[in-house]
Amino acid sequence: MILTSVLLLCSFAGCYTPESETPAVSGTSGEETEVKKEGTVLTFIDHASIKIQAKDGRIILIDPNAYSSTAYDDEADFILVTHGHEDHKPLSDVKLKEDGIQITWNEALVDGEYQRFEYDGIIIEAVVAGGNDAHPIGSGVGYLVTVDGICVYHAGDSSNDEALHVLKDYDIDYAFYPIDGQFNMDAVEATELANIIGATHNIPFHMLNKVGQDKSENFTPEGRLVLKEGESIVLEK
After folding, report:
1. pTM as predicted
2. Is the dihedral of CA 54, 89, 183, 226 positive or negative?
């Protein structure tokens, strides 16, 4: 069900972070790693696809385009899409609950205004993204998702454009940046942007360049955290 009418509020200077206790980071690497479903679980599916499972079991998928044999078994409560390129649109086997919400860049950026949505404690805020020829500012969005008091940032396909520097005013716990340098910033540029924004944990995605080289070793910001394909972690504040 494509979202057409929800509570739309103006952006505010900082991720919403209600007081709550969260467990320490845990988990191991490997293909579609399982972790105990205690706390808030984040899974890096692959490419630019991530999954967040809240403590209450609600599932948020962002750009669920990467193939996975298990990540899409459960129906999602929310599907978020940053922009219209085919490698970010949902795969056909991604399932949305009958009463689930899908938000694309079309609903997230309306008449030049980045939108904010709230659903029973889960806050989804669209933010500026892009800044390169393939992804000009205004053609897509990034997302700040606050769940269980933890803020996760997905940059979409972006570059280190000055317009994104406003995100330094947000309290971001986990941030995902593209680093392949093919149609967005490379690992060095992403490192610079990550250090400007200053999230607690900085995670690369879009890691393979056009010849299949993994560029994650060149991504070296403060708070660097590299997740393997299918790896899950329990998030901490």
Report:
1. 0.83
2. positive
